[in-house]
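Appendix C reproduces, verbatim, an entry submitted by the partner laboratory led by Prof. M.T., so that reviewers can inspect both the input and the predicted structure.
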Amino acid sequence: MIISVPEIWDYKKYGPGVVAAWFKKEGSIIKKDDLLCHIMVVKVTYEVRAPVNGRVVKIVAPKGSKVKPGDPLIDIEETAEVITVIPEAKPAEKALPSETIIRATPAAKRLARELGIDLSTVTGTGPGGLITEEDVKRYREAIPAYKAKELSGLRKIIADRMMESMKNSAQVTLHMEVDVTELVNMYEKDLKNKDITYTALIVKAVSQALQEHPYMNAHIVNDEIRIFNRINIGVAVAIEQGLLVPVIKDADKKSLSQISNEIKELSSLAKKEGLTPDQLTGSTFTITNLGMYGIDYFTPIINPPEIAILGIGRISDKLYYENKEIKVRKVITLSLTFDHRAVDGAPAAEFLAKIASILTNPSQKLKLE
């Protein structure tokens, strides 16, 4: 019987999925509810399980195939009962002696200790199977110099999107150092106890700036620039498998506390692989923060089809000479990468300057509600 891709996502809304991994091979014995494969849709992994007991006849959609609900996935020969495979009996193995004597030259033993090599795994070519120093060297040379890991699943999707972004856009990055002394003081005094994050402050400032500079709140699709009315800000979250970008929908209409709570909730779901496609789609602008890793500034890559992304560096101390006095100020570096096809340098710089102005004077310009 042919098992089709189940209706586990909205194809009209999210498009095709990709078969990310198979856990059964052709000829494998399966029982009902066994995990058959993973299908990835917009960086969300769905499990497909066996609906019956049986044996795999043919995998119709191999790994890497693009599929939609209803497409043929796997051919299973159904059985009423679970098939039990009884392994063939093997000849009894000789009992190992209580002690195994390994014959090796002193030089071979010394080299094996230095290299951390178990001599029992080395084949000796000396008289009577004696392991020589040359045998140890040959064994060491035969050990692979690296461990290969297939570029697949989420890592493959991220790699493809980054290559698509760099290949199909004219990316330029602007860096700006911003005095955030007042922001830090406000945070320490009024916001830290409320469990507000700096990322939430940045999201709020960016959402305000996008209201005044809507040309940055856009996608570019083929030869069309689409400027959006809704401000949906993606916030990059690092997980073990790669990078996910959950979306704060209508960020400009939400209070600082709402944004902060939503970021925490989405980040937690991302790390548990519990995000839905709806939580990962629809962003019109993206923010990525590496400040917590001690990074001062970097060049972020645009999340297509968006036309811009803002990178956030760490907050650090910097000395300024002002009115014949040396003062210590808190500074942060903002890195704006934009697609030069959709926007020129001057308006992009104006947008970045607007964000800087809000962060520099938060008591006057940052709307907390």
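Residues 106-142 form a domain with the Dihydrolipoamide Transferase fold (CATH 4.10.320.10). Additional entries are available on request from the coordinating office.
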